[in-house]
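Appendix B. Raw example, untouched.
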Amino acid sequence: MATHVRAEERGDERGALLAFLEEQRGGIRRALLGLTEEQARSLPSASELSLGGLLKHVAEIEEYWVALAQQAPPKVQRDQSNWHESFRLVDDETVAGQLARWEEVAGRTEAYVRSVPSLDDAFPLPDAPWFPPDERVSVRWLCLHLIRETARHAGHADVIRESLDGKTAFELVGLEKAAAPPS
């Protein structure tokens, strides 16, 4: 763990879940600090993963899951024909553009989680071979799933960044603090 998540106010489960999700988002954002677009798009290993692609994917998948919870159609439709594009910056997409998009998505996620009457409120999972039929999950499950998904990719981002220039998560936390305006 490269950063600390402050304790929530007593009884603020939503705040605690959202704080842990934001901490994991920060790991991915920090992995992009100081990189050029070319570096963010590069594939430094045998994997097809780039930092820019991971950024796009986590923003897109968070947006998808919150839409699913709201029983709304996702903004981006993915299937087998275009799934690979969810892990790649394409055309005129940029890191800055994806960071701005993710910030908006994160704001909508927080607003949604804070607005539901209960974290026990449930929604149906999509019909997919990897989900049990007719399964419903709670908003609490959604938050935990987003934390898990983002943390998994934050770990990927750490490895990719270290492969690019040797910078570790701890060094990137230091760079972020040095670049932050004084409080």
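End of appendix B.
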